Amino acid sequence: MIVRIATEDQYEIPGDHYTEINDLDDAVVAAVEAGDEEQYAKRFAALIDWIRENGKRLGDDELRESDVIVPPADTTMAEAAAEFTGEGLIPDSLAESAGA
Amino acid sequence: MPGLGGRFSTVVKAKISKMLDKAEDPQEVLDYSYEQQLQMLQNVKKGIADVVTAKKRLQLQSGKLEQQVVKLDTQARQALGAGKEDLARMALERKTVAQTELQSLDAQVAELEAQQQRLTDNEAKLRGKIEAFRTKKEVIKAQYSAAEAQVQISEAATGVGEQMADVGLAMQRAMDKTEQMKARADAVEELEAAGTFDDLTALGSGEDDIDRQLRELSSASQVDDELAKMRAELGTGDAPKPAGELEEGKGA
């Protein structure tokens, strides 16, 4: 699958990881909803790190469409609060259908 | 309700499929899309120039403030050395304000630096993707068959379209930061105009008694310094003594 970290790069992650990304994503959203800045920073960094560690950066000459796009790595909690919804970055319906 | 990812990619996808629907000739779409990409690249270059301008302005202000901090510190020492505590306090107060502004300016310069780097990276990336698109579009045109072309255009255009939307987002963020910095630079200039960071001797017609005292003090100590230097050069050595006393010492 192809995951994009907005304003940075696209990564190719072998296999189907919707569930893992979705879990990490839900944790970030929970921190935003709780208004917990410390947890937000920690969990969002965990999501970004996971993508960087498990993915291979796509070359500039590749023209691919992302399956998932996560917000910029420097997104503040205030920005996130405005963007995130209860469902997280990846709609649950998409995660379910991909996992099935 | 979708989050950012869902919304973001949906918007990109919707734009691209709208573009494809409108096109009667997919080859036209390819050329049009390519033009748009080049336009975007120009916008990014302009964006980088804007960030650099904002950064330079802040760096200039930062340099000026640094000088004022040093000057005010020197004046505070001079005043204290001369037992003028009120003057020393005034100089230190201004120094503190200048230092606080300086710290925040430096942090913002660093932030703009990061934005500039990001836009520069994005420009390179977009350039690479556009080049890949250009090659692909010529290949598609050469082997044109309506049904196949639709699919290939859709694939290529989606990839580049998403990249363009993403670069657009990076630009938007950089411009927002630049706007904040401009507002900050304006605020610092207002403080400057109000004389908040002025060195105490630099006041013009509006100088008050304290300022005059300080200027006299600083020129007086400059004279003392020069005298001390001259004495050292003349080799008269130790602390100066009144002429009479010297004579007396010799005579004894």
Hey, roughly how much beta strand do the residues of chain B contain?
under 5%
Q: DSSP helix count of chain B?
A: 6
Shape of chain A: globular
Q: Would you count the extended β strands of chain A for me?
A: 4
The protein's oligomeric status is heterodimer
Mean pLDDT across every amino acid position of chain B: 76
Radius of gyration of chain B: 33 Å
**Total beta strands of chain B:** 0
- Head-to-tail CA distance between termini of chain B: 104 Å
User: Can you summarize the main beta sheet of chain A?
Assistant: 4 strands, mixed
Output the structural class of chain A.
Answer: alpha+beta
Which chains have the largest interface? A-B, 31 and 33 residues
Tally of DSSP helical segments of chain A: 4
Extract low-pLDDT stretches of chain B: 1-8, 239-252
- Structural class of the helices, strands and pairings of chain B? mainly alpha
Query: Roughly how many Å apart are the termini of chain A?
Result: 15 Å
**H/E element order of chain A:** EEHHEEHH
Binned strand content of chain A: 5-15%
Helix content of chain A: 40-55%
- Give a short account of the largest sheet of chain B: none
Average pLDDT taken over every residue of chain A:
81
Q: Could you characterize the architecture of this molecule?
A:
The complex is a heterodimer of chains A (100) and B (252). Chain A is globular, with a radius of gyration of 13 Å. Chain A has 100 residues and is an alpha+beta fold. The two termini of chain A are 15 Å apart. In chain A, strands 3-2-1-4 form a four-stranded mixed β-sheet, covered by helices on one side. The relative contact order of chain A is 0.26. Chain A is built from four helices and four strands. By secondary structure, chain B is mainly α. The A-B interface holds A 4, 6-9, 25, 29, 59-66, 68-72, 74, 83-91, 94 and B 1-6, 8-9, 114, 118, 121-122, 124-125, 127-129, 131-133, 136, 155-156, 158-160, 162-163, 166-167, 169-170, 173.
